[in-house]
Amino acid sequence: MNIGCIYSVEDCSSSDRPMPSFSSIPFGISYVATSLKKAGHNVKMLVFTPQTDIFKKLHTFIEKNKPQLFCLTAVTSQYHVISDIAKKIKEIDSSIHTIIGGDHATLNPNETIKELYFDAICVGEGERAIVEYASLIERGVPYAEINNLWIKERHGRLIKGHQDSFIQDLDNLPYIDREMWDEWVFDENRMHSVLLGRGCSNKCTYCSNHALSQASSGKYVRFRSHENVIDEMHSIVKRYPSVKSIFLEAETIGVNLKYTYEMCGHLAIFNLKYKNAISFGTNIAINKNLAYDEELLWKLKKVNFDFLNIGLESGSEKVRNTILKRPKYSNKDIINFCNLAKKCGISANLFVLMGIPGETLSDYKETLDCVRECNPNHVHLSIFYPYPGTNLYSEAKKMGLLKADIIDTVMERRRAVLDIPGFSKKQINREYLLFPYKVYKRKKALYKILAQILRNYIGMHPGLNLCYRRVFNNSYLKVLQEKFNNFHR
Fold this sequence. Notes:
Blueprint: E1 2-8, H1 27-38, E2 42-48, H2 54-65, E3 69-73, H3 76-92, E4 97-101, H4 103-107, H5 109-112, E5 120-122, H6 127-139, E6 149-152, E7 158-160, E8 192-195, E9 197-198, H7 209-212, E10 222-223, H8 226-239, E11 245-249, H9 257-272, E12 279-284, H10 294-302, E13 305-313, H11 317-323, H12 331-343, E14 347-354, H13 361-374, E15 378-383, H14 391-398, H15 425-440, H16 446-459, H17 462-472, H18 478-485
Parallel strand pairs: 1-2, 1-3, 3-4, 4-5, 8-11, 11-12, 12-13, 13-14, 14-15
Antiparallel strand pairs: 5-6, 6-7, 9-10
């Protein structure tokens, strides 16, 4: 059976190849598409951007491939785009089946199932369910109950499947078929990514993990075997021999240090097979013990980790502990960890969140002070966006900060959408713009700081951002872009 899988990207330089690298491809729809392909179906990937002529692209694809099923996925900020795509699919050919999964459908199933243009929704993990659903469609038999799926029959009856347990043995998942993404990735030799595990043990209020962990039964935090991960990495290097780095995707490698230490041993052996060693990066959420674990950092450096993404979020311990519910660590702890990482030759990159409900300008200034002391190589700076299904979204509603359920998704997390008492929308946008100067003055060259301020400004304005992306997509400017990106290193 012919099947189309759909993903949407808001910010890109090219509608033809909107994914900068293979580290940008989403795991969820990739595993679903690969599972369908492994089951014998002919699966094609489609990526839509704000510049895409949706109707034309769909019409051409449907006319050429005659698909019987489209699989779609969406986070809340992309749901309006994905639902519009589903609508246009039905306008072209109402007999084509549509199913949506992902965070939005899982966290808001009762609202999503009401959408006229979706025949089914997936609540939770979908690799097993989608294969069963496709089989029913292909055979043309009446719908049956499928775990994790809510299916609408043609006459309106809803078949609501039981919630299956989380997949406990992640080694049963197929390796992602990256070939489906080849035509959408701009640079196949830049960083790739490999899934280490699923789930997070933390209960941060701004993140969907605390809600997603309740979607099914069974252990939520799971890791693949070391052998399984290494084997997939070999397959990546075989297909893309010029790749230089691989990101090991997990919410945090600090949740299971025994697993992490054993992985280091496997990575060392892995790199012995290649003349040019692959470098690695990953995420880590620190705690009071990890903050002083120099042994771990030296082990990571020895096996060629060159950067770590570290979650600070707020430098105000009050905001971090009482509002965000982050793991317990002090500012002194995270400053020490960043210093140790740099001592070991590993770049420390910080995730920072601002414009948080309940945060004041004074709280934010504590964040600036903390980030200056950490002196990270790069900061992933975001403005808080209220995602439905998260605890902090509910809290924002209670505080009267949300005037409507659907809020502006344009330049999501780059422009303030909430006016917070003590930290207005105007102040948040201004501080976002000036963040590089306030953190890096006298630490980085002024032209680099000004360049990042300009990039922040461009990123806050859709038209300017599109022009920037298109300009830097020009191959003649790649050298200039690389110099600009050195600011982040």
